[in-house]
From TrEMBL:
UniProt GO molecular function: flavin adenine dinucleotide binding; monooxygenase activity
Protein name (database record): FAD-dependent oxidoreductase
Keywords for this protein: Oxidoreductase
Keyword field contains tRNA-binding: no
Species lineage: Bacteria, Pseudomonadati, Pseudomonadota, Alphaproteobacteria, Acetobacterales
Gene3D superfamilies xrefs: FAD/NAD(P)-binding domain
InterPro entries named among the record's database cross-references: Auxin_biosynth/cation_transpt, FAD/NAD-bd_sf
Domain of life assignment: Bacteria
Segments forming a coiled coil: none
Keyword match Chloroplast: no
Amino acid sequence: MTFSQPPEIPGGLATLESRVRQDLAWLDLPTRSWVPERSVDGRHVLDVVVIGGGMAGLTASGYLRRYGLLNHVVLDQAPAGQEGPWVTYARMTTLRSPKTLSGPCMGLPGLTFRAWYEARFGNVAWDGLDKIPRQTWMAYLEWLRSVLDLPVRNGVTLTNVARAADGVLALTVVQGGITETLLCRHLVLATGRDGLGGSYVPPVIAGLPRDYWRHSADPIDFEALKNRRVVVVGAGASAMDNAATALEAGAARVDMVIRRATLPAINKFTGIGSMGVVQGFVGLPDGWKWRFMDTVLDAQTPPPRPSVLRVSSHPNAFFHLSCSIDRLEMAGNAVRLHTPRGVMETDFIIAATGFCSDLSRRPELATIAPHIRLWKDRFTPTAQDMPSGHVSAELATSPDLGPGFEFLEKVPGSCPWLKYVHCFCFPATLSHGKVSGDIPAISDGAERLARHITRALFVEDRETHYANLVAFDTPELRGDEWHDTPLPAIG
């Protein structure tokens, strides 16, 4: 579908940016840098490196600056303006989140999407806006990065994490074919939905020749699907968005193969959304955390109504419910699907089958992966904890995180420096709730992360801070403000 935006208000953004700078000045932000400088063998040590310059990484960076951790950098492997899913593999027309959510504003009204949109396009345009176009959301995130002057480096790929001398982390990164090593004290993985794994593709599909299928998060040449038959496997938002994109590109027909007997209709977690959930989920006993998330996963998140209508409005779109794939086989230049409802053929399959946590798929984490404690390593849910009636593989393989999103050791003492690596991406959900990837509570999660790292750095440097306290001798009084007088006589 074509994307258009209203005309811009001349000077509107400049006015808003002036206000943001004034708000920051009134709040005396960012706080001055306070962490003692550190070097190893003459090489500068960064306090924090954030991997991922999307929404989560930018919000984390904003809070690190707010707490005076100015000695940090954000690295993203994508070119500037292509961080995250919004203009790459996201194929929805608009976001599903309400336009009024404060999102990554970090508590400042002038940094909200609404403030940016009204400044750029005007109040009338805001009133007429229903949902946020994904391209518009990406433009807002680019502005957020710019107005806060966040230290993002693009085109940089993390390839290894190791421990260097003096306990700091040594990160091997590659940019433009050149390899370098960065030293840092804390590492934050703000790497999105597939942050600790990758796309999940059922083996029955993955066994086909690669020319005949793609995952919904892969680059797909939709123009090449014109006049061809397409099967989309799945019933979530990405399934609908990919099906609609194929139909709009001129696919001859699109068949939705859906295992469930009906489309999920109720968004459970959104239904109970509150600050109680945002702040309280992390404090739940383990069994209750599992019970909440198992209920949500078992119900599944429904696709947005507009996304389903975007598909069903095409006469050559077909929904096949209670239709799992038993096996696939090549039939000439077509793929033949054997299902409980019969046999069909297609020219191309899009697997909208989600993501998985699988550390073996992240070579950059190979050094620490064997030591990362997963929920299955220490927690066995009871029948009461599993409303679905089975142990969820997604929950079982979630990382078991500490209060600052830090990884914990599977075997105590095996990798003590693991606590300096923080998982601020979707797999943190079972430990912390939905505060590390979704728009509604991303600021709350990022502040929780920044507070923890701030505290950890101060505690670790306590001897230096105490020495500075003892050595501090700048007087506020000069001695000429008062004089000693004798006590008054009695009687």
